[in-house]
Amino acid sequence: MAEENNDNQTNDRRNFLRAGLFLGGSAVAGTILSNTLSASEETSGEKVKVMTAEGQLVEVDRSKIKIATDTLSALANNDERKGIPGKKWVMVIDLSRCKNARKCQSACNKAHALTGPNQWLKVYEMQDNEESSPYWMPKPCLHCDNPPCTKVCPVDATFKREDGIVAIDNERCIGCRFCMAACPYSTRVFNWEEPKQPIHIATGEHTCATSQPRKKGVVEKCDFCPHMLEQGKLPHCVTACPNGVFFMGDENEDTVTNGSETFALSQLLRDKAGYRYMEDLGTKPRVYYLPPVDRLFPFTKEDKEKTEE
Amino acid sequence: MNNSEAEKTALQMKKLKEDMLPKKFSLSGKIWVGVLSLIFVTGLYYYFFRQLREGLIITSMRDYVSWGIYISNFVFFVAISLVGSLISAILKLSNAHWQTPLTRIAEVIAVAGITFAGIIIIVDMGRPERFWHLFVYGRIQSPIIWDVIVITTYLVVSMLLLYIPMIPDIAICRDATPAENKWLKKFYTFLAIGWQGTKEQYKIIENSVKILAVVVIPLAFSIHTVTSWLFATTARPGWDSTNLGAYFISGAFVVGAASVICAMYILREHYKLEKYITLKHFDYMGRLLVLLLLLYLYFNINEYFVPGFKMKKVDADHLNELLTGSYAPLFWSVQIIGMIIPLIVMLFNSGRKPLVMFVLGVMVVVGAWFKRFLIVIPTMMHPYLPMQDVPVEYTHYFPTWPEWSITAASLAGVLLVITFFVRYFPIIPIWETAKEHGIHPEEIK
Ligand code: SF4
Ligand code: SF4
Predict the structure, then answer these.
(1) At the N or C end, where does chain B have fewer CB atoms within 10 A?
(2) A164: Cβ below 6 Å to ligand 1?
(3) What is the pLDDT of residue A15?
(4) Is the pTM of this model over 0.95?
């Protein structure tokens, strides 16, 4: 019952947001905040400090706080399903630079409020055969162009957007887990129990752009950070990596960048013999790997111990 | 027709009804129902008070083994429900008359099985309250939607196939129920939909059954083929096989026939039906099962030998664990106890005697349940990327107590449906048996 009420509320809010979109740009977040602050009548008596959009610290009643997601996205579900117009997101991961620092992972976990074993980005210890050296392989969702996961979804809860992103609408997912069985890359994770997340996220509006709030009984995974991309920023893993392993870019513009270096995508893939993981499955990932040759860091025991901790 | 003949017929009818009209539960029947209800209610408790509240965390499923015994149990239910079409449709259409006393047993197993297949799939869902999304957002491209469509259609058709040929018998029950038993009388009257036993009415029944029997065969093949596609449409070792549909169907016929044998034995002993379920029936069912087991063996060889010959990396990991690794004890027991031994024993005449067949039938059914486990779970343990960076409990699967309990409840549910069916309806078709005894349809009352 409580669940249903919650859904109604979010729907209302969604309609409101749709109207709010006309106000445009960053004003939206501020409008929502002030609007919800003035809308509520009852008080709980408990005061909390919050920061306004202008950067002022104010004290308000707890009951007046409703949403505070860190996103500018206020797209209607239909628009979210289309994606960011004119873009074709693509990622390149340079395996020769990875030393298992796992800053990508912790930044991802923090940004998406991930707790427990549900990590959207994993760093695997790989070894292609006994003779060749082991190496580290970070793996987000590969956002396949021929995604086995979306093909099997019975309710279109996971879908391919026009900008290349494979997203999940966790308000539609029925939790059948067919997509988990179908993904050959073990990318998808499931909320086996109520996910632990800060209250302001848990009660916020769900958007596919942030994949928040996370919900019990549904599938989730790396979403390529559309909320960052919409603002012209790089995904959290890209900016967090101290070694510049991750490159993100737009295939239409043929550029990828890790924040400090920028390359022409086609040339980079040509020069460095870029490949896609398990190409033979025909999934056509949008994530390319550059082979772990001439590595910046040798594969060491300490790195390995670090992951085992 | 002269008087003495009419008297004889009436006497014969009386005897048939005495033998076959539903009877109140005996003491052992009550104990049986009590135990099953207890199992059922425990499962309901775990589902409604634990799983719905806490989520699927109460099971042992995790991100690698994301489908567990709920799904393997689902496959099992779909499998046993296929028998309805096998026994009643295929044998009916091929004019094999010996199966008359077995058709209703087969049909009720089918209906109970497919009902609980539908229920257990909802139990497996992370968000059961969103079930309606399947109807409003359904994507026809998804094998799950195909499954929903064929399973509901099969449910309807097999219910009709159970109900329509039973109308004359319901009318007999109606007439045999004393007036003071008001509710029961009303119940039968309602279900008998004004049956008079006229020639035209019999004609309608015969024609509709013929149509249903034809319709149900492709449907039965599709429910299990589509169920196999839930697995075969993924690129995983052990599932990624073009053989899977045929393999599933052959396995389904085996477990279906075996479950009919078990039911035959229990009903025959409990209700003293030796006159109707005869040694001949056991003999024929035994021969049929041998044939089906051989077919199943053939598909098993295809399923394991061919990838085993090539030993591609992922297949090799999967097969090694199945055939020689940690799943080997279960795998070989299932194959030997649930397939090879029954096959060999039933080749002999003395192996097709009721008690022996009952024991073998139980072996086949139990083996078939665990076989579904072996089809679903080990594959999920062999992803392409290594299992790393997860808690240890993610890397193995053994069902938790609530999970067992909920699964057991669904099995108990199937048995309860069958039990209550037998309590209120004649499990052996009275009118068809009478017809075979040479009684004219219009005299069946
Ligand atoms: S990596 Fe897996 S989850 Fe991601 S798009 Fe490909 S198949 Fe889907
Ligand atoms: S678990 Fe959710 S996203 Fe995955 S296939 Fe089922 S409904 Fe679609």
Answers:
(1) N
(2) no
(3) 41
(4) no
